[in-house]
Structures are given as C-alpha cells and as structure tokens.
Structures
1.
Amino acid sequence: MREGTKVTTEGYDEETGAITTPIYQTTSYIYPIGEKYRYSREVNPTVLKLAEKISELEEAEMGVAFSSGMGAISSTLLTLAKPGSKILIHRDMFGRTYRFFTDFMRNLGVEVDVANPGEILEMVKVKKYDIVYVETISNPLLRVIDIPALSKICKENGSLLITDATFSTPINQKPLVQGADIVLHSASKFIAGHNDVIAGLGAGSKELMTKVDLMRRTLGTSLDPHAAYLVIRGIKTLKIRMDVINSNAQKIAEYLQEHNKIKSVYYPGLKSHPDYETARRILKGYGGVVTFEIKGSMNDALNLITRFKVILPAQTLGGVNSTISHPATMTHRTLTPEERKIIGISDSMLRLSVGIEDVNDLIEDLDKALTSLN
C-alpha cells in the first residue's frame, strides 16, 4: 500500500459500521465484556487505534500514544535508562528535551554526554553508550543525523538508538526502517497538523514498546480519547499536507537565502547546508521548518515577527498555517545564554514553520516585513 493510501485508510468500526473511529469517552468498561480495556488510563479503544496507526506508518511492531511529546520522551527514557546508564545526546535539540536529559536524568544518576550533531558519529565510535538519543532533524538548526550510519555503529556496540522524528515525519523518513530502535513524535506538530491538540507517539519493537507502555500507564502520561481522535483525523491528510509543506519550505528557503536583510538560512534542502548530501540520501523531503538569522539585534527579530499579516507569531510548528518563533526567548528560553551560544542559537535567529498557504502569499508576507526593517 502506497503512503498516500496508507495514511487515509482507517477501516471501520466492526460493531457499528462507523467509517471513522468513535470517541470512546469513558473511564471504565463493564466486566467481563470490557476486560481487554478495564480502565481508560491503561487502554482506550480510540487511543489504541491511534497507536496502531503510528505503528503502521513507521513499519513497527507496536505503537504507543501519549499525552504529549514530552510524555513520550519521559516515559520512554524512564523505562530504558537507570542510574549508571550512559546516554549520548546532541546540543541542538528542543530546549525542554535538553533540560530533561541534562538536569532531570543526571539527577537520577544517569551519565549524559552532550555532543554537537556533527560529532555524534565519532563519539559513538570511541565510547560505548547504553542509549543514543537524537532528533532526526535537529531543532532549531535543522542538522540532519545520518541514521543509517549511526544505527550500524549502535548495533555493533549494543546501544539503543532512540530518535525524535517530529520534524521529518513518517512521510519524509522512517527511522526504524533505517535502523533505529525507537521513533518518537510530538504528534501535536505535523502529524496532527492543525494546532489544536497536544499528543505524543512512539513506535518500535513489541519487546521495547510493551515496557514503555507499562511505564506510560504508571506515570499517567495517557492520551485523552478526543485528542486521539483529532490526531487520527489529522493523519488522513498528512501526505498531502507534507507534499505542499515540503515544496513551500524549499521555495521560501531559496528566497530567504537571496534576501539582503538575511544573514544566514538553515534548511536541509539548500546546498549551503552542512548536511545537504546526507539529507538528499536519507530524506524523501526536507521538511517544513526554515530557520534563519536576520541582520540585526534581538529587538529587531522580535519586532519583525509582529509585522506579518499571514504568518502567525507563536511557539508552535507543524500546522496548516505558518507560524514563526524566536528560539532564544521561546522554545530554547530555558537554556543559558552561554548554552545557546555554544549551540549556535543567536538572538537574531527565527524559526519559521511553513504551512500550506499559497507560497506566493508567504513570500510576499516575508518580503514586506523584512523590507520594513531599518
């Protein structure tokens, strides 16, 4: 089954014949009929359908749904890491994820090494880790990790490779097929795609994900059935949305690269990107996030994001409508100025999430706002 058919095919409810998954808004189930589900924090039919869907899309043995992307990350790592475990991460990643590892996990006695994205492959060659955790496309500098090469070394070393593929989505990349052990998503972003739901997803082998699911039940990072329904609905248009988003983002990145008010543009589809060749080899599309630096100060950047008419200034991404954020004061505000400097997050950096609007309207919106800068 091809990808476009796979995302839209949902089946039907065998009991009622409903052609969309019902929302089972219940806390519990009558014994013995509902013994499979018992209590909705543990298993809910709507949520289970979503878990099965991400498993299908990622070509995994088992999927699990969570109350948020961070719920997926925390539940997975608290399942697989223990005091004394050695974990490797990279610096350029979502700020709250970075803090989870460098603060919370270290406080639990976990040894956490931090590398630049370009150093990951060399690091795993010289030191054995229990877990290697990477974003397939990093946030916000959009470094592309060579998952096939990394997974090969991890398997040789007996390391678990866990990937956050929020930016790439199952349409542009399938990390499990490329050798990763677990793939995680903030489903609030491109997968749900409408900026109206918070959810997380994970997929991998049945052995690993069964353990993670038990932790999810214990921690209570369980997804609400109505939120699960919204994610299932969003998945149906994932392929057509990503096709438009990939195309729009490429054109916008090329436009920004030539603008005289722009200092730097970060996008894997540009030949100037350090991982362009890797991206061409392992990605089917370069994604919907374009990061750029303007020629100016933090105040100029913050002022710029208020001047758009189509693009919305908001701390989110992956929706049908384009949004723009300022990493230093939004997504990566928990990092110190020194940490942001090491990563390469400048005060004049902006992260644009490209939607499905007409690309000419988006470019016109960017051009008018940038032209208004002194």
2.
Amino acid sequence: MALRKADRDLRLAEGLREMPSWLRALFGVDSVDRTLRHAIANLEQLVSPAGHHHEHPGHWAGDQEGAYALAVLVAVREHASPAAGPFRQYGLDAPPTENEIATRIIEGRETWWDLAYFSAFERKDTEAFVHLAETRTGRLVGNTLKARGTVIALTLGGLFFVPGTLLAFMRARSRGPRVNYTERWNPTYGLGVFLLAYLAYLGFATVFEQLAGHVARSGGDGPLFPMPVFIALDSLTRFLPALIALGLLFRKARHVRTRFGLGGPFDGKLVLGAFAMLQILDFGLRVAFDRFSTGDPTGGLSSAEEGPWGLVLGIVSACMAAPIAEEILYRGVLFRSLANRLPVGVAALLSAVVFALVHFVPGTTLLLIGVVGFMTAMTYAASRTLLTAIVLHALYNAAVKIPEWIIYQTPLF
C-alpha cells in the first residue's frame, strides 16, 4: 500500500505540474519535488539499508520492489541517472532489466519510478512506452479532479449556510428547561456508561483485528471469510458497544428515538454549513502541519478495501456504521452528559479531545479528528437531534473515503 500511494501521488504531481500551485493544493496535490521527498521519507521508514537492522514493524525484509523504488527515487532526487541509483545500498544485486519494465508497461503494472528508470536508457521505443503509461496517468488525473472536485463543489455550496450555522452554534449555549431524564444525566454517570461501552469496544475490536488479517488478499488462497461476512462482523464490532450504552441508559426502546434525537428530523442547512466549515479547517490544518509530519507511509490505505467489495466495506464501515455508533457514544452519551453540567462549548471541547485520543493516530490526523468531534458535538447541540450529527459525520467520512478509493484503489488500465 505504501508503494501504491507513493506511485499515485507522484503520478498526480507529474500530471498536474502545470496547474497553478494554489489550485493544485485545493485538489490535495503537491509539487513533484515535495511529493518526491515525501515519498522517499515514507519509504525509508520501511526499507533498511543493506546490513542494517530496522526496528520499524513495517520493515520490508527482502522486499526487492520497495528497495528498487527507493533507489530510483533517491537517484531522481539527487539529479543522477535512475539507472545508476544506489541499488546495492538497499540490498539489491541489480535492478529489473529494461525488458522487465517494458513488460510491466504493456501489462499496465508500471509505476512512476519504472518510467523514470526506463527513460534513462533512451531506447528508440521509449516514447511509445511512455505515451502508453501517460494515458493511464491521465485517467488517474481525470478521476481525481472529478472525485475531489465534487467535494469542493459541495463545500462551496455549503458556504452559503455557514453564517446560519455559526449563529445556531452560538445559540446552542442557552436552551430552555430540561424536559426529560436524558438531560439530567450527570457527567459521572455518563462517563461511567461511556467507559464501560468503550472497554467493550476494545474487547470486540481486539478479537476482530485478529480475524481481519486473514482478509488481506495475499497469495492465491483468498480471505478466511467472504467479504460480506467480514463487512457484517466489522459493523457488529462497531455497533455492539453503542447498543450496550443505549441498553444501560434508556428505560424504553422508543426513548432512543424520541428523547435521544436519534429519529430526527435533521437540519440539512446546518449539515451543509458545518460540512463547509470542516472542509476549510481540514484544508488549513493540512497545509499548516502536514509538512512537519511523516505519518503513516500507507496513508491509511488498506488492502481489504481493494475492488468493488472494498468500496462496499469502506462505505458501510466508515460512512454508515462508524458515524452512527460513534455519535451515539461520543456525542449522545459523553458530550450530552458533560453538557448537562458544563457550558456547551467546554463540553464539546472535552468530548472532542477524548474522541481524538482514542483513535490513536499521530500528527495532523489527530487534530482533524478532534475538529470533527467538536463540530459534530456543536451540531448536535444546535439541532437537538443526534441524527443531524450522524449525517454530518457520515458526509465528512464519505468525502474522504470515496475519493480515496477512486484515486488509490481502482486499477489504471
């Protein structure tokens, strides 16, 4: 996955190099030089120089493809011939032959560094092979512009509702008298229920992660479980803790809908305004902090999300199950319990901090998750219905997950 991410990012940087830098940044594409440096930094986390022990858990012991890619990228960065890259430094006796690379291009399996390496030999048929590969890069660029352009268009449309959203957030600080027992939960009681449900989630997740490793399609044996079963298990793992919390908190099942606000109605204008604000904050945080963080070399990509069933997994898990289950726990239980005794802004901030920390992610992603948690809490407080927060969370996740699948998980041939 790290190799695929590096390849697609470099292709996009190359394919959009003539685009103005501000517009490139808007589409999440960096310059070729910065993308190259970032790719090298990420791959160096995984590939050790020959004769050196690497403590990183993702170390590619004996992975010749990773070593070959890194050697070519380093040569390009240093403006040397890719054919004379430091292959031995990374444990390779020799790089692939010209004919091997030509075969990759014909079969649609080439990478950005394959083209750089192949072009160094100045063969008579180089131009034809490069043109064939550039056609696939053009397809990737087109898909990226459409996918991320749709998110940009939705964000621009949501800007019209930002003033009303901000006004609703400010008014959320003061509400009428408490009318049902959900608004009498004290922080201690709510926190106890939240912790119990979260511990249950950790138990379920630990068991599920042991099974998830079998889903990766390595070799020809396929996954241990069919993908529909895997998707169902993933959803069950997410929903069970929320169901435990609801069972402890509510006297009657219908109260989940009527007094918890889970049945709606949701405020569409509030969702669009909050979504636009989230996208602007997301863009600002990435521009400000991404350069200081190497992050996950795979960019969070998973082999389980390859192919059509992978898209189904991403939509069901990240865009449906996670928003519902997480909003019930973090906003419906934790935030609401805190807001019953604390100012709404303080309760939203505290619940957002918890929401970010329990995801166990580094750097910019940690800040982004915290922002999502704060915005969904304020949306819940402003609309008085959990469904509004769920729709906002689902829309934000879909704006990340679906373009990501289109760009990184679909074949280019």
3.
Amino acid sequence: MKILITGGSGFIGSALIRYFIDNTQHHIINVDKITYASQIDGLCEYQAHEHYTFYQFDICNAEVLSQVLTQHTPDVIFHLAAESHVDRSISGAMPFIDTNIVGTFTLLESAKAYWSALPESKQADFRFIHVSTDEVYGDLPFDNEENKPSKFTESSPYLPNSPYSASKAASDHLVRAWHRTYGFPAMITHCSNNYGSHQHNEKLIPRVIACALAGKLLPVYGEGKQVRDWLHVDDHISALIAVMEKGLLGEVYNIGGDCEMSNLSLVKQLCRTLNELTQSQTDYQEKIEFVADRLGHDRRYAIENHKICSELGWSPKTDFTSGLYNTVKWYLDNPQWLKIDGDEIMKPLFSGSSLKKS
C-alpha cells in the first residue's frame, strides 16, 4: 500500500514509519512541517530508501497537500501532525489552534476531495486514521467516587481542560463530522501517555534523564500526585496497525497501557534506574524538587482499552519496568538526543518558584 503520515517526523510518527519500512513493503509518504519537536535524526537512515518519500510543508497549505495526494494516491492516511505539549499551549495557544484545528480541517477537505475522485473500488478500501489523546476527556478523580467512571471509555464525554486538549477535542469533532456528513472513511484513536526512545526532551521521561545527567534538579509539578497511564510507543504502533487493518469506519478506539502511576512514583523509578545504569555516586532521588503546579493540571488519566482488545485482538505487550529500563539505556547510549549543552529546552517550561525538595 501507499501510506501517507502527517507529522511523521515526530515521536510517534517516526516510530510508525520505522516500523513500516523495517517490516513491510508499503511505501511511506511523510508530510511534516519540521518544528522544534521534530526528530529528523530518527529517520535519517531512511532518507534514500526506495519506499520512503519526505515532504516538508505545513498541512495548512491546501494546495501543496492536494498535489501530494494526487501524485502519490495513498490508500491510508495516518494523521499525527499536531502541537502536543500542554505547557506550551498554556503559554501560547495560537500554534495549537493553527495546526490542530485549522490543519486538521485543511487535511480533511483535501483528503475528502481526493477520496471522492477515486474509483469506487479504491474508495471502499481507503482509510483515514486520526490519532488523538485521552486528554480530550478531561480528568478522573483519584478515587472511584460515587457515579464517577473509573476509566475513560469511548463513550466518555469530552471535557478538555487545557488549550492543547481543547484543540485536539475540536479536531476529533471535525473528523467525526466529516464521517457523519460526507461518509468520509475515518476512524479516531485516543492514546494514553507514550514513552520510549526518540522522544523530545520536553516530555517528562527524557526531560528527567536530561536534567539528571546535566547535574540539575529534577522538577516535579505540585506534589507529584497526578496519575498517568503509560503506554510504550511500540505498543501504540501495534495498536494503530490493528486499527488500520481491522478497525471499523466511524469507530473510536481507546489505546491504553494498563499502567497507572503517579508522576512522583515514575520519577523515583526513573532515578533508581539511572542509579543502576550510571552507577552514580549520588542518589538521583535526592535531586527531586517540587515546583509550582501547572495551571489547571489534570488529576488522573486512565483508559479502559477493552474495546480494542476484544474487537481487534490487540493488547499492550511491554512490561513497564523493562520498557523504562530499555528507554533509559537508549538515552544513555544516545546522549545527543538529550541536547543538554546550551539548549533552551533545559530552561524551566513552567512558571513559579521551587516549593521544596522531596
């Protein structure tokens, strides 16, 4: 098949591309704007590969987007292009509106026009997979309060709490509307927090590793009680493949790792793993520092993944302890990905002063 991936130079997109090229004969078309978070080095070995084509442009550019669709005639589109960092959306929401909402609208319009012009036989096989986040559902209580769901399901109401999650919720609604109104063959996925190699160091796990190796304090928001459901990126990729191959048009599939953990517990486990792998003379846990909490910080995310497990035969395979160990080892073996020296990303992304050490 020919598979077009928007945002293919990002963390999840590049992992998806590496999987396809290493394990299939599909031809991959990567469309990426290339922003600060793009991981160009993660795909450098594929630049001259016969089954890989890369285009650098903004998905808000309808003219170029339509040209690429017409030229390459993809059978599947995975839409992963998005601004994705909550902190940045709080300090400046406009890029999130532009890419996540206007960009999705532009892509849907171009893809619908392309799909409508296909022969009926190709129309029937075409798939559009919109990759979204569990954050569109808002948050969950720490304890199972009366009449409160214990996990997010595909029927959970949308209650986004940050500019980022609100922009992703809007993009979900657009995709659903294009399917319902025009019969556009789309599906939506919601994933929990991803981790693994090749992730940008503004995200929690690589950020903590980078700060630790740079001899800096390890910032944890508030008291670190916020709970997240962790999903290894390789398991996310296998879920997306299952949706592409077996998913039903118009359906939503939630992808969770069955691994709930508080931010503080995660950072402490990271520190223990770093202690083991680096044989540091200093216990990295002593570097944990609580800082002023993020504005509107969601309490807890947890995904009920029964639907994708029962209907598509998928399940997460990566044990978190071994997955985290291998992730830390990969960053230690590839320290250039952490960009420790002189990189502005090492400056705090949060506002407010330190509160106390753990």
4.
Amino acid sequence: MFSLIRTGPRILLLKSNQIEVLTIFLKNHFNATSFDLDIAFDNANESNTILYLLEELYETVPFLDVKTAMIVEDDPLTFMCKLYASDGNSMISNIRTAPHILIMRAIGNLSAMLTLMQTEMGGEIGEFKHILDSGNDQTTIVALTDRPLNRNITYQELHPYFLRLDGNYYHHLKELRMHALSYLNCGIGNKDWNEMEIRIYDRYGAYSLHYDRLLEVLEELELGIVLGESWSKDYPRFLMSIEVYRVRFFSFTDPKTIKYILLGLEYLEDGTRIVDYDVYYNRKKIDWNDTITKESPKTRHQLGTVSRTATYSKLSDQAKDTLSQLEEDIIKSRTS
C-alpha cells in the first residue's frame, strides 16, 4: 500500500558506427520508440529499458555524446538475449549498462533527506546530467520524489538534486531499503505518524464495495498503511446503534487531509451521497467543516464535489475504471 523505494528504468549504452541503420532495425524488430534525450526518462517505467546509441563509448559518457535515445519494453537481460540472437548484434561494437537509478518516496524537506543520506552513505549530490555524465556501470543514482511510486514518475516530479553512490548496486539497494523509513521521517522532521480510525457506514449494507473503493484510493495515492479492521457499533444518537466497519489506518498525512479526501468519496459524480466515511483521530471525530479553508465551499455537498474532482484528478485511468465499476455495483445493490 505504501512504497518507499523502487528501481527506475535501466539504461544501456550501445556503441555503433551505423546508428541510423541500427535505429531502424530496433524499431522494426524490438518495437523500440525514439524519444528526445530530455523526455526519454518520462516515458519509461521500471520494467522498460532506455537505449542510448553512441559512436564512441568511454568509461564515463557525457550526456551530449548520445546520438539517439530509444525505449524498449523488455528488461535489459531479455533485450540483450534477443539482440544477441538477432542480426542487429553485428551493428553493435560495444554495449554496457549506464548507472543504476533508484527512486525513493520523500515527504516534506527533501533536501534534508538527501543530505542525511549522503552523510550516512557518502557519495556526491548534484544535478542529474552532471551525475549521469560522471557515472559509469558501477554508479547508482538515487532520486527523490514526493509522488506515489506505483506509476510513471516524470523528470519534473523528481527533486532537482540527486545522490550519486559508487560501488555495489545491490549493497546500496539493501541499505536504502533498510533505512528508507528513517530517511522519510527525516523529511517530515521526525514527527510521529498519525494513527486514525476510518468508520464506514452504509444504510444499504454494501460494506465490501465501499471498503474496496476506500482501499483503491488509499493504495493508489499511497497515503499510508492499514493496520487492522473489524466490525463495531456506533451510536449517532442516544440509545440508537448502527453497525459500522472500522479500519485502523497509519499515515504520515494530516488527518484533516484524509477526511477531506474521504469526503469526496462519499459522493458520486452526479452528487449522490452513497456512504459515510468518518475519520477519528485521538478518539475525536473530525467533522467535515474542519477541512474548510478560506477558498473552499461552505456547504458539505459542494465541498464533497470539489474534493471528489480533486482526488480523481490524481488517480490513474485504471484506478478510475475500477472505482467506476465499484460505483455501478453500489447503485445496483440499492435497486436489487
């Protein structure tokens, strides 16, 4: 539900004196796509391989020496095996990996997090092109982002400075995985995370659908970790009890922000209210009007509509499709 670190796209450096011919071959036989150097990273995910085609291949390769950038959907090992067995192998005189890229989730003061990582692990902090130019196949580049890691991360969504680490890549990956949470906490000033309770209530009883809908958004936006869940009773009025489903949620996000997001999930696109998502923090219920700012609407319905629009704008198309199907099922549960 909450990713702290993942790999970036791998980069292979290919030396050839037939770059134009090789480019055509890669497009025809590997479904490779050409991109400008500055946007190749934005269009590759962690399962893709970026190919940099060069006429000369030195231990360190200046970014400006790259003649062509391409992306293939295969991982580096699969691509190299296919290439070795193909006619394109004869057009390449040398091939090796560029620096590894690791992307870490960061919150708050990203510069402080980067500085702490350098203090504990060594390395050099610098801009991406400088780090890439001075790196080789024994270099690991660590990038920070405050965006969820379960989607493509564009270059603009990364912190402008990166950490260069030399030496064994897997050693650095292990160390960063072990200490990722402490680095993340450094960015938020080592504050305690927020433990909340989310209570789901639906008078029509479609609890599983509302739970799935809630989890889809929490996971898609990587807002925290579910610690537990159970059935319980709530007492909205004196001597009146209703059944609710309780979800214990652990998050670095402010409880009022969580309440604002869930307020939007209470409504469908047409404004129909379909569920109650109550948020409790320190045993106190956070009311919807606790999320009001100077710029926000002052009625619950209007605020929920604005929140839904803002939240859905951050979701992937796949998540939107999943939520749309769940909402259709919720409507059907009321008419069946």
